[in-house]
Amino acid sequence: MKKALVIFVVAVFAVLAWIVYLSSEADKRDQEAAKVPLITVMEILHASDLQQGIKQAVENKNEGAVDEWMKQAIAVSEAANLSKQDLDYLMSETAKDYVVFNAKRQLFNEAFEARYYSLEEVESLKQQYPEAKDLFARTDVLIRKRDAIIEQIAKTLSGSNTVDDVSLNKARQQWREQAEKLEQ
Questions:
Q1: 3-state SS of the chain: helix, strand, coil percent to 5?
Q2: Which of 148, 171, 183, 184 makes an SS bond possible with 154, Cβ 3.0 to 4.6 Å?
Q3: What is the pLDDT of residue 38?
Q4: Contact 35, 61 (CB under 8 A)
Q5: Is the Cβ–Cβ distance between 170 and 176 less than 8 Å?
Q6: What is the pLDDT of residues 100-109, one digit of tens each?
Q7: Tell me, what DSSP letter sits at residue 119?
């Protein structure tokens, strides 16, 4: 009987030790999961409010405002418990250059769209925003297509296959009016 009692006590002790071990492991997993950031560096850098603020700062040529926005990005990353490596990246000139580069591309896109619909030239825009050079070929294609549409409208207005200045000007005016309707 004593032998059975000893075996029973050892078994209970083993079960209790196993439960303590599992609880400890679960606690470690919970603590490690709590350290996982809720947001990534790229999500911070692509947050709409950050991008809008950086874009406004770049447009106004306000280097101080860019720095302030980057400080806010760093504060978010610290609150989100990002790794030291991620924090170091956000504090770097590389991260700043990245958001400024993206802001300039957004500014190019917005300015191009406005000039496209208002029939203004875009070459000076290309000079102003070389960061968007990979978009230049596509913008040139869009302009050629737009001009072909306007020419087709002018041919329709003139009633012939030749385009005169009067019908071309009327076609351009129609294009602008249609663009204004789209903006509203």
A1: 85, 0, 15
A2: 171
A3: 76
A4: no
A5: no
A6: 999 999 999 9
A7: T
